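Researcher: Next sequence.
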Amino acid sequence: MKKFLARLCAFALIIAMLVPANVSRAAAYDPDADFTGKTVILHTNDVHGALEGYKYAKGLKAAFERAGADVILADAGDFSQGDPTVSYYKGLSAIKTMNRAHYDVATLGNHEFDYGWAVLKKNLKKAKFTVVCADVLENGKVLAGTKANTVITTKGGVKVGFFGLETPEAQTKTNPALIKGLTFLAGKDMFACAQAQVDELKEKADVIICLAHLGIDDESIGNRSIDLWNNVTGIDYIIDGHSHTVMTEGEKGEKIQSTGTKFANIGVIVIDNKTKKIVDNYLIEVDETLPASYLVKKKAYKYINKIEELYGEVFAKSEVDLNGEKAPGNRTEETNNGDIITDAMIWTVMQNKEGLTVDDDHVVAITNGGGIRAAIAAGDVTKKDVFTVLPFGNTVALVYVTGAELLEALEASCQSCPEAVGGFPQIAGMKITIDTSKEYQKNDETYPNSTYYGPKKITRVTIDEVNGKAFNEKDIYAVITNNFCADGGDTYYVFGNSTTKFDTGTPLDEALMAYITEELGGVIGSKYAKPQGRITVK
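Model: Next structure:
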């Protein structure tokens, strides 16, 4: 064990010389290491449908147990969305694969709520692991199927206390219509909730771990894992998720570890059974050399093969690469992917103009950049490709707003530009300019049931034209969007507050496929080689 730790420290020193301290400290898996007398917490986060990776989680768990360790396998949320292999099953395939991998404890990420609380409640009944989530309440109580905290006692006698925290951003990153009646604690309320968990666990546990789906992005300031560490005392370690960060400590040495996303790494926290103290933490990069479980792989491929059967068919060709990046990309600027999607939305409605009550020149389209989840590469295009780009099952909807309300929605959605925000608008039917030299002037209070602040005045966004004509703040415009934004998701509170809406019922992915086959003749061509100049960022 001493030789292994010496090699590990030497390796970590080399890594530390190459990368900033707050990025990560990595270690290679050593099959000869002795972990007798140790408790090992293995952890994952933001798996986002990478089901095959669970074979390595179970394989490592078994390997550490063979090396003498007591092992706890944990997850920090966002396991049930991000790939057709989970979104098709509304998250249940992830839970069943995690069961097969013998997870012990997990918390909820914002994407666990994507299919609505009713669906999640049913899914949680299938989980064979404990789900901890202290800061999401229904009628003042933690959600059915979850606990605020739990204590796992290892064979070596170590009592490890876990509590879970969900990002309050879930209330707008999830369709608000699907989570009515739930309360997401934020800021001081969330910290008070966390402190209560720590105080309770102090009486029962030797080590206290927070499974936090909070992240460290600037977009989340006030509700980040770093903010949690600075406002709550008594947490021994935070296992973090949400921002897809690869880190083994915070910028100022905060005891926070996160593995990235889609099984880029598996986290390791080592506890000495005698002292009952954390003695090490690091990340193991996932590759094919790691031990793997055949049974978990078999379970994962049950779902993977089904999706290939359903969606593997080639239906079109692309002559260009459609941008799937977050930043710079769909959350910071106009992209060709955003252009084709919003064009498809307008085309879908204009086929029969169902629900349309304004002139054609008053019709625009907006979709949130955070809803565009992947790229489409030049070459064959399958239904799975489109489903991966648009995995949420959103439908095409219409919202009627005044010009002033449209401008407010755009201002709110461009508040952090050029920094990324999920609500960043990809648009059609209009041209806008975003002046990033102007400060976003926010209201004193957030929008209701939101972590976003609406604009006190319009300073950053100008609508230069609508379908080639002058924009008028007093006119009524039909905004073709997705039902998530129509219900006030992300930064689109104004849309959710509209009293005039119409949902076409057409899934967004189906609208895009129909546009490609029927309007574009099955070929995504040079028209979409680059963004078309709808958004100017200066």
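Model: Confidence is low (pLDDT under 50) at residues 1-22. The first strand starts at residue 38 and ends at 44.
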